[in-house]
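Figure 2 data, in text form.
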Amino acid sequence: MPIMVSIVEDDETLRELMSEWIMQEADLKLGKTYPDAESALVGLPGQKPDVVLMDINLPRQSGIDCVSQLKPRLKATQFVMVTVHMDADLIFRALAAGATGYMLKRSTCDEVLAAIREVHAGGSPMSRAIARLAVEAFQRVPAGVSDLECLTERELEVLRLLSSGLMYKEIADQLNIKFNTVHVLSRHIYEKLQVNSRKEATTRFRMAIQPGPSPKDRG
């Protein structure tokens, strides 16, 4: 079965270009395309595509808001944000909303098609520049985060990189360790945090490093 891909993009030229890329691939099938969040919210739930390429900067309602409303209704659909923005806050907001990939609009045809296939296979594709930005944002974890104190320094490094969307091989290359070592460390992380998946582990990580309210905010 071909991978059905829908596009939500207000730039007509880019929307048509990405549509052409998809239609040229035998293992991909172009679903319906939408120029804004409002029409996507109406059409996508009935179509149930495998993958959605979602622009962030849509008119009126943002792509992030659109994903946050669609994901509960389309749990099997994978959303990849396609944007010009290199902003750590936007990346994390998109991931929290339910996106599983983040690509820059300057990405090549091959990069976009690879991202579609990767996210459908269970990965979390990111443009290299986006992945680096996300990793840098995770470099400093507040001391004394009780939810993560059970992890070793190396396990915490692996969890940071997992949360940034890197795959096991990329983590192994970045930390200069073996692929199997990353697999073992990930299993230890799951056991210590008492979670069953990468998504649950990375969610725990993001919650743990989220700044808490100040004494003044707490009243």
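Caption note: The chain has ten helices and five strands.
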